[in-house]
């Protein structure tokens, strides 16, 4: 298990950057970083030992552009990959108030306006961010899950039986026309799961979108791919206020992506040492089940699974 850096090293880094304030490690926050609250309004993130600093580099490119466009995300104050005081890449951010949506219970009746607000923020991202200078190529290259390859892998590893394999293969056949539509290319957060969504509770509202380590250019559908599919109609109602109606294949591409993610989770062995974000992908099957149980509306009908 990786250990956090010595407090003396953290203090040395802060003082070297003109900050003389108390700090506290929050070991329950962050998958790839040690997260410290510094004073009343700063967050220090130190890449954990053995983990690539690719996400931190992507954020160093994405966050300034996103903040300049007026999106709700904490500003990046410092990016330091020198390893001078700490043997890791370090980033310092302004601190945003609130709790992550994934760490708190919100009554279902209160969720639609929140997800509409999230949709408006995604729409503003896709509409406002037109240029992100990236001379060193640090941005990610978001793409869809290869659902057919994931399905074949699940079958070969005997994680799915023949009848279900054939049924999902037929479902994927019916989804392929969704990719015939030429999709716009927009700037994506690409990881909008509930643990990257900071909210206030009273009143319930979106405060900030966190963690831009997977950001890059691609199909707008990909910014909906880590949101629960049962909430997408609410999200789209806010998104389309900003961006207008999505293209005809949008819903089909989203279903394809969710199936691919669910199959990817199916083929990964679950052990205590698995990546900490694995439960997020494991929940895809539960989200797909909940979505189907809620009788998806008119926009989805073309992309629903074939009769079993």
Provide a descriptive summary of the structure in words.
With 308 residues, the protein is α+β, with helices and mostly antiparallel strands. Helices cover 36% and strands 14% of the residues. It contains nine helices and ten strands. The protein has helices at residues 7-16, 54-68, 111-128, 147-156, 162-175, 232-243, 250-267, 278-282, 284-293, and strands at 23-25, 33-38, 42-47, 76-80, 90-94, 99-100, 186-188, 197-201, 204-209, 216-218. The strands form three sheets. Strands 1-2-3-5-4 form a five-stranded antiparallel β-sheet, with helices on one face. Strands 6-8-9 form a three-stranded antiparallel β-sheet, covered by helices on one side. It has a two-stranded antiparallel ribbon with strand order 7-10. α3 (111-128) packs parallel to α6 (232-243) and α4 (147-156) packs antiparallel against α5 (162-175). The longest helix has 18 residues, at 111-128. The protein is globular and about 65 Å long. Mean pLDDT is 92; it is low at 270-279.
Strand content: 5-15%
* Count of individual beta strands: 10
**Fraction in helix:** 25-40%
Strand order of the largest sheet: 1-2-3-5-4
CATH topology of the largest domain: Aminoglycoside 3'-phosphotransferase, Chain: A, domain 2
- What is the CATH architecture assignment of the largest domain? Alpha-Beta Complex
So what's the CATH class of the largest domain? Answer: Alpha Beta
Number of helices: 9
How do the SSEs run, as a string of H and E?
Answer: HEEEHEEEHHHEEEEHHHH
Number of domains: 2
Described by strand count, sense and barrel closure, the largest sheet is: 5 strands, antiparallel
- Structural category is alpha+beta
Q: Which radius of gyration do the C-alpha atoms yield?
A: 20 Å
> What is the mean pLDDT?
92
| CATH superfamily grouping of the largest domain | Aminoglycoside phosphotransferase (APH), C-terminal lobe
- Overall form: globular
Low-pLDDT segments: 270-279
Quote the distance from N terminus to C terminus.
Answer: 45 Å
